[in-house]
From TrEMBL, chains A, B:
This is Dihydrodipicolinate synthase family protein. It comes from the Bacteria. It holds the Pfam family DHDPS. Belongs to the DapA family. The keyword Iron-sulfur does not apply. SMART domains: DHDPS (SM01130). Keywords: Lyase. Gene3D superfamilies: Aldolase class I.
């Protein structure tokens, strides 16, 4: 479950609620493509913006639409108490694994984050992936803390933030972390634009935003990486460069992928919770051009 | 309401819920001291960690314990939809004003933040204070954006982040923002350690953490500032320097003030929601020493 391609779909919504049919369709598409796992209610799935009830409902829909593909559910919340409740909900609804980010409002200490993971792990019967995303959680893991948490028995993977685009620097970074964690804990790369570098540098999986909408595109890169074909990995990823440029210029992956999904009619417009907006005006035009140029569909 | 001393009490809680009696006692103490307003469910009041229902209950308790002192309620949340609901709840429960921070998970754009405030202001019948706290919201206001938002008719104050300790730099900073906002919009200083500088530099109010537990101490500084007695302001604030040192060394004001409240028995231990912890071990000993040294009670 924590190797290969983990595809993270959007949770399309508006001010009235989640668009359940559209969400199920996105998940079915991933199941049909036979991705290795489906990462539901990640940052791309806007978990932080949904109530406990809505998150349970989305989990149920995902599990029933995912066929034989394991579903990993994001259970992050500000309070340990709420994470425990979300973990129970996710397990009851059939999640195969959970993904936990140390979401913060007040800045957290290392000891607080460790205790948070320790408490949650004690209540889990499914494996957990540590979600390291300083851009949204505003918590920065030290390697030492990763090592401590990775030794908790339920921890089976770490979703690591973007590595350097320099392959040697990326290899060093992955090797440094690898040395501190148990052998059976996998490392997965986030940040689509450097995913190919991450995979070549030794990551076991790709926690992928683009894969949540275009699974075949992301699978081709992942399978080439798993076959050790670095040249094909690089070529396929380089082809998507105009897409990665949009991520860099327009404030990250979420708004771009959500805008693409709207333009292609995979989701209704708008699909993000206010105050978040998809891209408009000239930025939207740029996205349309890239969709056409890359023949994304 | 948005001038003088606005005192921000803790919302003492544990994993079972809010300690309602202790919270009411904290508010009554502020009312008795006749602070100018009580800022409930600010960052010190852990608003981000509480459910809508708990926040309504805390608002009701505050209003019924505050006597003739106006109560300002923090209504921040990730979603515009949730802020609208919280605003309605706060108004129904008798809030005299509201405090709104642009809380974020995904990084927000200036236009998103402006629309967020505009939408919320349209639904308000009480005045609003813009809560600028980049350390917790991870959104940085430009002066230009402050100017735009401050011209929305319901906006009556801006809670500004700590200014420079250099009085001339602080004066310049306050004057620069003042020039961009309407005359009847006040500016209040956050960051207890530089509050005296902020007040001398031209701020109309002090949004005070220490004032939420020690109202007389904070009132003495505020009243001296209002009388134009810069020397007394400085002397009274300098006396508290050992306290400000704790803020700096131990990761901000919340953990320090919560630890002080626990040590003095104003609240039960623990009083913060997990994963947050009050200070323990040597750090707690340091806090005890400062309490004794300053004769805080």
């Amino acid at each position: 479950m924590f190797t290969g391609l983990s595809a993270f779909p959007l949770t399309p919504m508006n001010e009235q609620g989640v668009r359940e049919d559209e969400f199920s369709n996105l998940v079915e598409r991933l199941a049909k493509a036979q991705v290795d796992s489906i990462g539901v209610l990640g940052s791309t799935g806007s978990y932080a913006y949904l109530s406990r009830e809505a998150r349970t409902r989305v989990t149920q829909l995902a599990v029933s639409s995912a066929g034989n593909v394991p579903v990993i559910i994001g259970i992050g919340a500000l309070r340990t108490r709420d994470v425990l409740a979300l973990a129970e909900d996710a397990q009851k609804a059939g999640a195969s694994g959970v993904l936990l980010a140390p979401v913060s409002y007040q800045k957290l200490t290392d000891d607080e984050v460790f205790s948070h993971y320790e408490t949650v792990c004690r209540s889990l019967s499914v494996p957990l992936c540590v979600y390291d995303n300083p851009g949204t959680t505003h918590f920065t893991f030290s390697d030492e803390l990763h090592g401590r948490i990775a030794h908790l028995p339920q921890v089976r993977s770490i979703k690591v933030p973007p590595v350097s685009t320099d392959i040697n620097a990326a290899r060093e970074r992955i090797a440094r972390l690898r040395a501190l964690i148990p052998e059976d804990v996998t490392m997965g790369i986030s940040g689509d634009a450097v995913a190919s570098t991450g995979l070549i540098a030794g990551c076991d999986s790709w926690y992928s935003v683009v894969g949540g909408l275009f699974p075949e595109t992301a699978l081709a890169i992942t399978r080439a990486a798993q076959a050790g074909d670095a040249q094909t990995v690089q070529r396929l990823s380089d082809r998507l460069e105009p897409f990665w440029v949009l991520y860099r210029e327009f404030g990250g992956s979420l708004r771009v992928i959500a805008t693409v999904a709207e333009i292609l009619g995979k989701v209704s417009t708008p699909c993000l919770p206010l105050p978040l907006n998809t891209l408009q005006g000239n930025q939207r035009n740029r996205v349309e051009q890239v969709i056409e140029q890359l023949d994304l569909r």
